[in-house]
Amino acid sequence: MWSDTPRPTAASTSPWCALRWRRSNRRNDGHLPASGYENNYVASTPGSGRFNCPVTGRYLYVGGDLSRAMLNRTGNPVPRSEFRNYLSSGYRDDLARDILAGMTAEQKCIPSRYFYDARGSQLFEEICRLPEYYQTRLELSILHGACGAIMESFGKGDLVELGPGTDLKASKLIDAAPEPEGEGICYIPVDVSESALAAATEGLLRRYPRLRVLGIVGDFTRDLGYIPARGKKLVTFFGGTIGNFTDPAAQRMLRSVAGVMGEDDRFVVGLDMVKPVPVLEAAYNDAAGVTAAFNKNILAVVNRELGADFDPGRFEHRAGFNRDEERIEMHLVASAAMAVGIPALDLHVAFERGETILTEISRKFTRESAGRLFSAAGLTVERWFSDPKEWFALAEVSRAGLG
Ligand code: AVI
Questions:
Q1: Does the N-terminal or the C-terminal CB of the chain have fewer CB atoms within 10 Å?
Q2: CA-CA distance, 152 to 251, in Å (whole number)?
């Protein structure tokens, strides 16, 4: 049985909100290819609300106030927003599989995607406001300066945002579009959390009366094939979250983005750059201890979901820069020898004193290393936008060899 996972707050700013889950997502386990049926279903539904598709069993949400809906060619109102659910597997199944692999590996590990339950998302929001954590502020200010140029070349079409968190960055882009009120733009956020999608889109629909929204409830590491292939696309992946992927995982993800891009499409990616080590390490060892609490919270997630008996008080937070790998590594260090039971896996895990669990990698890039990452995935950097010290950057990339 599923335990009751607390829901992330709707207003969470986590850029990994694409990896936050909700109980309501689990009821739709069918993973059917997009058939076009969903479109017909939505277009013929007069009103707004949730509807279970009688054929696929998936639910669709038709949102918006039809009194302000857009009209189609025949003069009938068309809802401005629609959500489609493509989730294929459950949170707890994924967690069980990952914890079994992670607790039996030589270097014990827990994937960082499991940080973001309700408490973890709240702590991450606090991290983003910490004086030591420069990334969120820098990225916003870089985007503020870059959005005019980005939107001038994009013009209109589909604005796809992977793991949006809030509507802040999409608003900046839509404000900078050549046409007012979101005219000609369909905003397509992709996220496993329906509540995060709702949070990211409600305000936008209110603010931009000509904007259309297609929310894709899905995992952006697997479900990008469901993004409609039509017109021009601007794909965004903000927050430096690409740095939380190992190289093979980043390659897979970037290749799947490249796979949905056409000749004129662009992909804007936020990258945290290599910088003086004390600055980097301070960002992950804040004086207020928020990052330490965020790190330890992952054990509470495993306890709650799998019935484990980790004692977070017996683990210490450690974060340091690995110069060879150019990445921050976050660990939980066992302060004493202990055994931890994980009943759902029928597993007992022994820890020696000082043994660690790797909970996160956060890669830091140079222009060269980022260029290599993109080109290995078939992408070419077209433009860089950064702050004067180049502590953070937005790379605007295209599909290599296409234009
Ligand atoms: C989401 N991600 C980009 C953050 C990072 O900096 O790697 C997560 C984080 N971990 C600790 N502090 C913030």
A1: N
A2: 29
